[in-house]
Design goal:
mainly beta
Length: about 90
């Protein structure tokens, strides 16, 4: 398994692959806390290859690809700078 962060300008995940994505200064607003937030720069994402290929207005504004998140954590392609494969669980566990 690849254990280092991969620059999105160098290599992309496979379509529909779940990965850890690195998003610098990513603010996640806390439910029920007004405008309070915490930084979560590493999030679980699913890569969506050619997501906007048939939507020229969005393609021009956001780029070709998209990152689908869990919950409300979707991100435009340019938000993510690096990614890495999801880690496997502990060795020897049932």
């Amino acid at each position: 398994m690849n254990a280092h962060w991969i620059d999105v300008q160098v290599e992309l995940p496979e379509d529909d692959q779940r990965v850890l994505g690195y998003i610098p200064d990513n603010k996640v607003f806390l439910p029920g806390r007004g405008l309070e937030f915490e930084l979560r720069e590493v999030v679980v994402l699913r890569f969506c290859l050619n997501f906007y290929k048939d939507k020229p207005d969005k393609l021009k504004k956001h780029g070709l690809h998209f990152w689908a998140g869990e919950g409300n954590s979707n991100h435009f392609f340019n938000d993510v700078t690096h990614w890495r494969p999801m880690p496997s669980g502990p060795e020897g566990e049932p």
